[in-house]
């Protein structure tokens, strides 16, 4: 089957390409804010929000590409029961990083595959990250060097770049932290015969 990534995420595209997966990219146009807000209002856990958003994206693109195997992805950051979003401004990024400083938080990276108009596989990877107690001077310099690029990442950091310097401890799969449970996805695709095993 044709394989479609329902995302415009540069890092997800790079991960799949580096793994030798052949795919098309069709960014999903869904109202993530409305879905997230409704689920938060219902008291949904960050993990379930990530899963629901990933499924919404896969479902949307699968409606346009019914012949394809469609992958929807999303990542949500959970901090003591709160859910953080991608910062829209450098001030929001500063506020998020001040809130995360010296604390542990979780990243939930969800992936949902659709085929023939229905979900056939899903996985939510979890990673726990502890930020170090960095100085305000470092934070200001970090933001100056890395904005606006970090605005595309939940929490205001990219672990594959200078964001790694914000952390004291990390538990979890590297690919999950980047936004895609890649190993689990590749194993499933191999079992289906979609990629060479």
Task: Describe the protein in words.
- This protein has 197 residues and is of the alpha/beta class.
- The protein has one domain (2-192): Maf protein (Alpha-Beta Complex).
- The chain is built from seven helices and seven strands; from the N terminus they run βαβααββαββαβαα.
- Strands 1, 2, 3, 4, 5, 6 and 7 form a seven-stranded mixed sheet that branches.
- Helix 2 (32-41) runs antiparallel to helix 3.
Q: What's a quick, concise take on this entry?
A:
By secondary structure, the chain is of the alpha/beta class. Helix content is 39%, strand content 26%.
Strand and helix layout:
Layout: E1 2-5, H1 10-18, E2 24-25, H2 32-41, H3 46-64, E3 68-79, E4 82-84, H4 90-100, E5 104-115, E6 118-131, H5 136-146, E7 167-171, H6 174-178, H7 182-192
Parallel strand pairs: 1-2, 1-3
Antiparallel strand pairs: 3-4, 3-5, 5-6, 6-7
Helix pairs in contact: 2-3
């Amino acid at each position: 089957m044709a394989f479609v990534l329902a995302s415009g995420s540069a890092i997800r595209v790079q991960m799949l390409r580096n793994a030798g997966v052949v795919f098309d990219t069709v960014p999903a146009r869904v109202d993530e804010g409305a879905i997230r807000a409704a689920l938060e209002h219902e008291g949904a856990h960050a993990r379930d929000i990530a899963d629901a958003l990933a499924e919404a994206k896969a479902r949307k693109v699968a409606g346009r590409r019914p012949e394809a195997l469609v992958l929807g992805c999303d990542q949500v950051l959970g901090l003591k029961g709160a859910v953080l979003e991608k910062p829209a401004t450098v001030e929001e990024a500063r506020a998020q990083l001040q809130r995360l400083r010296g604390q542990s938080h979780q990243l939930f990276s969800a992936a949902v595959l659709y085929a023939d108009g229905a979900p056939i596989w899903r996985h939510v990877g979890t990673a726990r990250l502890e930020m170090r107690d960095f100085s305000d001077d470092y934070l200001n310099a970090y933001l100056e060097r890395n904005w606006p690029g970090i605005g595309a990442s939940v929490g205001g950091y990219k672990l594959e770049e200078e964001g790694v310097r914000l952390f004291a401890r990390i538990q979890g799969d590297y690919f999950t932290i980047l936004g895609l449970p890649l190993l689990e996805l590749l194993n499933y695709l191999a079992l289906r015969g979609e990629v060479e095993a």
